[in-house]
Design goal:
With 80 residues, the chain is mostly helical. It has a domain at 16-38 and 48-75. Helix content is 54%, strand content 0%. It is built from 2 helices and no strands.
Length: 80
């Protein structure tokens, strides 16, 4: 039996370029969450690093940029 031919017009999967952009967006999101990691303050000691620029501002901004970049990564249409 012959394999059915794939038709690009009816193929529902995302093109290769979109998948690469989605992976890049996911890596940016993960990078932002990694920047937010650190030692917490305990019951017996206070860690002033929990309010550092990296954990409070930079990490969330990078994660937000990744989430925003995810929208065009999914919706991008190539030239036909």
């Amino acid at each position: 039996m012959d394999k059915p031919q794939s038709n690009p017009e009816t193929d529902k999967s995302l093109p290769r370029r979109n998948r690469i952009m989605i992976v890049c967006a996911l890596l940016i999101i993960v990078l932002g969450f990694v920047l937010m990691l650190g030692e917490p303050s305990g019951a017996t000691e206070y860690n002033p690093d929990i309010f550092s620029f990296r954990r409070v501002t930079l990490g969330p901004m990078i994660s937000l940029a990744g989430f925003v970049f995810m929208i065009p990564a999914i919706l991008w249409r190539g030239k036909k």
